[in-house]
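[User]
Um, tokens okay?
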Amino acid sequence: MSELGVLHVILGCDDKVAAFERLIADLGVEAANTAYVGDDVPDIPLLRSVGLAIAVANAVAEVKAECALTTRASGGRGAVREICDLILASRDPV
């Protein structure tokens, strides 16, 4: 992930919400200013904790029901690129 410029990665986490809360506290970021992308039932508690909850196209129905946005692309098939493009397009022009 470091070759992609990703600075923070949490793997093998049993409590995603607690890990998320620690990360945003360390970074000084409000939960309302974050997004999370999920695909399965264990993601639901964290999806409820963020400002923008996003499901990938191949997410289970329960996850899609919790999310404000569902990508056209499936996980591993361009969903992250789609989300990045949407975020960049929504920003004010410089």
